[in-house]
Specification:
single chain; alpha/beta; six-stranded mixed sheet; two-stranded antiparallel ribbon; 8 helices; 32% helix; globular
Length: 228
């Protein structure tokens, strides 16, 4: 069920800007109502286009053609105004501060349906389906290590690396992470973000063998220039 819940927190996208990213967040507050109240409060200056509740209900806050304020200071593939290029979806979940837990199947299935529709209408590629932590690794953890990115990718939303037995990019790690889209100002934070997305059982911030192999497998998917 889609529920209109309009937020005043948006502005116009710059003229000629394509919508080519999907950014996933968790609400990070104790209750759904608390999150909704914050996202429609003009004083908060934050919003998203959609909120997906744990029971699968979808709240529509900002029209898709408007720029919602969800990404903050962020970076992806050379873009610093991620809000201008993206659709932002918040997932009801208390987050790491208030009792982080798994995302229920009703919520995940609703998210998949919504995401597939958005990806189809805006021709968003899998590599541009990201979490808040991917685009702001020094600040954010959401949607976090309990979010099932592999399940999403298997349903056609996002990318997931194949098993890769190669040696991985032992040199120039920053370059390869940049090719994938990440900022590399703080390589430890960026590695944690990568691991939170692709290696959720091993969030060390260290460039170990399995991390390098996963980076290599993703490079195989997107190409060494990152243009795919």
């Amino acid at each position: 069920m889609n529920i209109d819940y309009p937020s005043p927190n948006f502005d116009e996208r710059p003229a000629g800007t394509d919508i080519d990213m999907l950014v996933l967040h968790y609400t990070g507050l104790k209750t759904l109502q608390e999150a909704l109240d914050r996202l429609i409060d003009p004083a908060s200056k934050v919003s998203a286009h959609y909120v997906v509740a744990e029971n699968g209900e979808i709240f529509c806050l900002v029209p898709e053609d408007k720029r919602a304020w969800h990404a903050g200071v962020s970076y992806w593939r050379g873009l610093t105004d991620v809000n201008a290029h993206s659709i932002g979806i918040e997932l009801e979940n208390p987050g790491h501060e208030f009792g982080y837990h798994d995302f229920p199947s009703l919520q995940m299935n609703a998210l998949i349906d919504l995401s597939r529709d958005l990806l189809s209408r805006y021709e968003i590629t899998g590599r541009n389906v990201v979490g808040h932590s991917d685009i702001a690794p020094r600040r954010k953890k959401d949607p976090g290590e309990l979010f099932d990115w592999k399940f999403m990718a298997n349903k056609g939303v996002g990318l997931w690396p194949a098993e890769n037995t190669g040696k991985g990019p032992w040199d120039d790690l920053e370059i390869w992470l940049s090719v994938l889209g990440y900022e590399t100002n703080n390589i430890t934070a960026t590695l944690r973000a990568f691991q939170r997305h692709y290696l959720p059982s091993s969030i060390s911030g260290q460039a170990d063998k399995i991390t390098r192999r996963s980076i290599n497998a993703l490079i195989d998917l997107v190409g060494e220039t990152g243009s795919n």
